[in-house]
Specification:
By secondary structure, the protein is an alpha/beta fold. It has 9 helices and 10 strands. 35% of the residues lie in helices and 20% in strands.
């Protein structure tokens, strides 16, 4: 067992294969949602885009949850229309919302509104909504999570923000690809979730996580900002 398995900063769950990984994470998400529905009558969760979580969202939609009592929003979004196939909203809609009939979706980008107004609306929505029972995040090979990219000129401001969401310009950051303008959950926003799940695939991602812990530099490895938060420890679900 290595230092990742014995770390007291998060819980690492290793899965033997992709099918087991998908089934276990979907079941854990459904349990968190049902817990809040039983206690409050409704549940809210924040989802990430990308191809990694898509099969989990598909499996989750098939589980026994009262979807008409579930509100869904995003961890982050590219500055794209929700109808754009490269947006996180489109991914979540295609992999989950079309299957989870009745679930309510709050996109971060509002068509026709400028970026600052979209961020304002996202913060207003977050501050007046039920506390999320869970947030699902990923991690890039550069150590970014959500849209908190190392080297971005807005990173420090986003990390220090006391609001749930911030705008971020990741121009020049390779991980942002051709979409430098973003809306991202801040560490302050992330810690509002009762549970946080980090979904990883492949041995390279474990190496990045190991390097992040060794560096202990949250500017160089923003994933650390999702690990060292108050509340429940981050749960890391990994499979090769």
């Amino acid at each position: 067992m290595n230092t990742l398995d014995t770390s007291d900063r998060f819980t690492l769950i290793r899965h033997g294969d992709a099918d087991g990984w998908i089934e276990a994470v979907a079941a854990e998400m459904a349990a968190e949602l049902n817990r809040d529905i039983a206690e409050f009558g409704r549940a809210r969760m924040l989802l990430s885009g990308g191809t990694t979580p898509a099969p989990i969202y598909q499996a989750l939609a098939e589980l026994d949850v009262q979807w008409d009592r579930v509100e869904v929003s995003l961890v982050d979004e590219r500055w794209l229309s929700p109808q754009d196939r490269d947006s996180n909203a489109w991914l979540v809609r295609e992999s989950f919302l079309t299957r989870a009939e009745g679930a309510h979706f709050d996109p971060l980008v509002r068509v026709g509104k400028p970026l600052p107004e979209c961020v304002y609306s996202a913060n207003l929505q977050a501050q007046h909504s039920q506390r999320p029972c869970l947030s699902v995040i990923g991690m890039g090979n550069d150590g970014h999570t959500a849209s908190l990219f190392p080297g971005s000129k807005d990173l420090t401001r986003a990390l220090e923000s006391t609001l749930p969401y911030a705008a971020l310009d990741a121009t020049g950051c390779p991980g942002a690809n051709q979409w430098p303008l973003r809306i991202t959950l801040t560490p302050h926003g992330l810690k509002q979730s009762r549970q946080r799940l980090l979904l990883l695939r492949g041995k390279q991602k474990l190496e990045v996580l190991k390097h992040a812990l060794e560096s202990n530099n949250p500017q160089l490895y923003p994933i650390l900002n999702a690990i060292d938060l108050d509340g429940a420890k981050l749960r890391v679900h990994w499979c090769d």
